[in-house]
Prior knowledge:
With 267 residues, the protein is an alpha+beta fold. It has 2 domains: 2-83 and 229-264, no CATH class; 88-224, no CATH class. It contains 2 helices and 20 strands. It has helices spanning 2-28, 230-264, and strands at 38-44, 47-51, 68-71, 74-81, 88-90, 97-100, 105-108, 113-116, 121-123, 129-131, 138-140, 150-155, 160-165, 172-176, 178-181, 189-192, 195-197, 206-209, 217-220, 222-224. The protein has a 5-stranded antiparallel sheet with strand order 8-7-11-10-9, with no helix packed on it. Strand 12 (150-155) and strand 13 (160-165) form a beta hairpin. Helix 1 (2-28) runs antiparallel to helix 2 (230-264). The longest helix is centred in the C-terminal third of the chain and has 35 residues, at 230-264.
Amino acid sequence: MSLRALHSAATGMEAGTFSLDTIANNLANAGTNGFKRTTVNFEDLYYEHLRPAGVQDSKSGSLTPVGISVGLGTQVASTVVDHTQGNLKQTNSPTDLAITGEGFFPVTDGVETFYTRDGAFTRNTDGNLVLAKSSQGYLLQPNITFPQDTTEISISADGVIAIKQAGSQLSTELGQIQLARFVNQEGLLQIGDNLYAETSSSGTPLLGVAATEGRGKIEQSFLEGSNVQPVQELVELIKTQRNFELNSQVIQAADQALQVVSNLRRF
């Protein structure tokens, strides 16, 4: 019995360590634009059925109403990205964009297309609208190129970009930003750099105009913050710590029981 307890408690400590890693990552990204917190789901392991329910009793001949079983611990079942909306923070940049509702900005590194909720865009030297990264600028798709003499940028809720150029008071429509939706956005692959990649589980991207067919609206001069709530993560951290401590105490108790049994054999 003590051996089962040792194994079960060990799996509990391993699960607690994984949960702690997830909480640490959430808290580390509490200030990351467009970051979505991750939650962990656990499931119980196999059961050892010492006496299954519904077996015929050899004495009375009747079927046993209940059985005798013991579980063998827990394991991580899945991690799920919480895609709830993060708080919007206003900026002074006309190329900062936030999505209120569902949707992702499609961007490319020139080879592959990725998807992001980070709307910290800027113009590169060629006038292209790119995701502001120190390592690499990911081009927004479809590509938007601003003339060098652009003096004013206006972006509507449905993504229509209008500009004014030097020496003119007339607005010119430059293009329209598209957003991508997925049938199963939880199936997207997180690859870092605030980017997601399409998978067979997420389904193919459903590209279209913002504020249509379930896609969110675009807010100019706003950025979406992380949806991590530090207080909530702190509560989860305390629960994880307590669960880890209790499992370690179970291991100590099981070890002591095994020592008692071992000492009994000496006499």
